[in-house]
């Protein structure tokens, strides 16, 4: 008998854990069904006849409708099913909130900042305010590595092409994101590097940044000095002296903030890696910690799993504005809201946006939704938060970092090497990719497909996260993969 996953008793499809050859039999709820054709790994097979126009049920929810009559044993994918999604939706608040049982908080060895926030790294960051100084920042990083001593974990910069020739909201969004990164607790000290003639002026940046510690944040405008490398070195020495004061100490996970993200997903992501992260999220929230779920377009079609968990009417109303606001963003650019999943997702077995979304939101576990936050705003409420941002991997992980995530859990079925400014833990949905890409993958959740319980995998992930928070490097950190991408929505002058 082939290995399959039947997610809920309501589902009229199963998912192949491994490829199912044509003619092989599977057992589902006591019934024997023969595969009418080959079913690739992670893909869906009908377990009962589905009439043309009938709903395809997975995760207990409709993920689209049949384009033709589909008999039991048939492969169900893009050739014979289609999304049900269209445009904006009017939501009704029907709360179904289940409080998590509190758990005594564990600790990790982190850095406690003067404002009371916790950090898992003690790094020096160079934040360019404009793309023109990217290479200046990179040379300063190369030339000043000798400052990485003692408790300082690294010296990094995050190049980007913006900060000038942008207008209105687009310009404001860049300014907001860069200021948010400057405030990030993992940065023990920051050098803000400007050119001097960009439209993101020093005065605008100071206004956006608000109150700051001048011992922690330094500024250099390259056009105002004769030798920006010599001046930059002096300021970085000051940054190192300040950051070097901090030492690791035991800190309660109540202060830990973890971003939740998926990318390069396959048909097993929503069954293994994402629900494993969901179990972790519930464990952290039950201990008083904070998690952040983003990728708003990958909530479309899965709203039924989220909206009823909003803690109150105010949070529900914010969630409605976030979801329909993002749909309006698509529509205003003359794009359909369901132009997702990616080619790689489809190869991995994800057919429609509803299919992808129902798997994606598994990362949020079962906790009540405490708050909804907007792009580059700081997280303020403990528990599970939803963040306004796109599904794009680099843009959304940058947004999670900007909102204060100390580290990011990133699930993948296809594999991906990149890293955000915050340590990015890559979690495999299948053992094959975990084995093949050991230099990318940090944690294997593919074991869930072959018998490990989600509770066991979630507990194992909690232990691993605390190791990373206490100083163990992720593979993306070891490989030097750290970058940002700013959410852009405007003209370039």
How is this structure best summarized?
This protein has 493 residues and is of the alpha/beta class. Helix content is 28%, strand content 20%. The protein has 13 helices and 23 strands.
Name the features.
about 500 residues; Archaeosine Trna-guanine Transglycosylase, Chain: A, domain 4; Rossmann fold; 7-stranded parallel β-sheet; 4-stranded antiparallel β-sheet
What does this protein structure show overall?
With 493 residues, this protein is an alpha/beta fold. The chain folds into three domains: 4-82, Archaeosine Trna-guanine Transglycosylase, Chain: A, domain 4 (Roll), CATH 2.30.130; 123-247, Rossmann fold (3-Layer(aba) Sandwich), CATH 3.40.50; 253-478. It has helices spanning 134-143, 168-182, 202-209, 228-243, 273-286, 303-306, 313-332, 343-347, 353-360, 393-402, 431-436, 454-469, 475-478, and strands spanning 4-5, 13-16, 25-28, 31-34, 44-46, 55-58, 61-66, 75-76, 81-82, 107-112, 118-119, 123-128, 154-157, 187-194, 217-221, 249-252, 257-262, 290-293, 369-373, 383-387, 407-412, 424-428, 443-444. Strands 19-20-18-17-21-22-23 form a seven-stranded parallel β-sheet, sandwiched between helices. The mean pLDDT is 94.
């Amino acid at each position: 008998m082939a290995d399959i996953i039947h997610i809920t008793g309501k589902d009229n499809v199963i998912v192949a854990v491994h490829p199912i050859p044509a003619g092989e039999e599977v057992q589902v709820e006591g019934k024997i069904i023969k595969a009418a054709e080959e079913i690739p790994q992670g893909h869906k097979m009908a377990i009962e006849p589905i009439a043309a126009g009938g709903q395809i049920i997975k995760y207990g929810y409709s993920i689209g409708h049949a384009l033709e009559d589909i008999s039991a044993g048939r492969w169900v994918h893009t050739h014979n099913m289609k999304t049900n999604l269209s445009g904006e939706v009017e939501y009704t608040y029907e709360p179904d909130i289940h409080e998590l049982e509190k758990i005594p908080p564990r600790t990790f060895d982190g850095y406690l900042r003067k404002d009371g926030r916790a950090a898992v790294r003690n790094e020096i960051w160079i934040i360019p305010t404009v793309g023109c100084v990217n290479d200046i920042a990179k040379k300063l990083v190369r030339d000043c590595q000798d400052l990485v001593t003692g408790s300082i974990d690294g010296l990094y910069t995050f190049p980007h092409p913006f900060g000038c020739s942008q207008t209105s909201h687009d310009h404001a969004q860049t300014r907001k994101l860069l200021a948010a990164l400057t405030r990030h607790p993992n940065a023990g000290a920051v050098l803000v590097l400007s050119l001097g003639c960009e439209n993101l002026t020093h005065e605008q940046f100071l206004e956006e940044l608000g109150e700051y510690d001048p011992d922690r944040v330094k500024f250099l405008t390259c056009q105002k000095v004769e030798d920006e490398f010599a001046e930059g070195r002096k300021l970085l020495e000051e940054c190192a002296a300040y950051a070097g004061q901090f030492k690791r100490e035991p800190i309660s996970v109540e202060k830990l903030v973890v971003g939740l993200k998926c990318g390069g997903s396959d048909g097993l992501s929503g069954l293994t890696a994402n629900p494993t992260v969901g179990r972790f999220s519930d464990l952290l929230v039950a201990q008083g910690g904070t998690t952040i779920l983003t990728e708003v377009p990958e909530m479309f079609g899965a709203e039924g799993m989220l909206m009823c968990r909003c803690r109150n009417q105010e949070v529900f109303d914010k969630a409605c504005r976030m979801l329909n606001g993002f749909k309006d963003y698509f529509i205003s650019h003359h794009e359909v809201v369901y132009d997702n999943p990616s080619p790689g997702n489809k190869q991995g077995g994800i057919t429609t946006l509803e299919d992808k979304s129902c798997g994606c939101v598994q990362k949020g576990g079962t906790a009540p939704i405490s708050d909804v936050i907007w792009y580059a705003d700081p997280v303020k409420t403990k528990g599970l938060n939803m963040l306004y941002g796109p599904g794009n991997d680099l843009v959304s992980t940058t947004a999670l970092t900007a909102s204060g995530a100390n580290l990011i859990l990133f699930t993948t079925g296809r594999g991906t090497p990149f890293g955000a400014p915050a340590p990015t833990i890559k979690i495999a949905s299948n053992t094959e990719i975990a084995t093949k890409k050991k230099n990318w993958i940090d944690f294997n959740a593919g074991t869930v497909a072959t018998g490990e319980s989600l509770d066991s995998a979630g507990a194992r992930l909690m232990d691993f996260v605390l190791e990373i928070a206490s100083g163990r490097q992720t593979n993306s950190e070891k490989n030097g993969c750290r970058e940002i991408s700013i959410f852009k929505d405007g003209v370039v002058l």
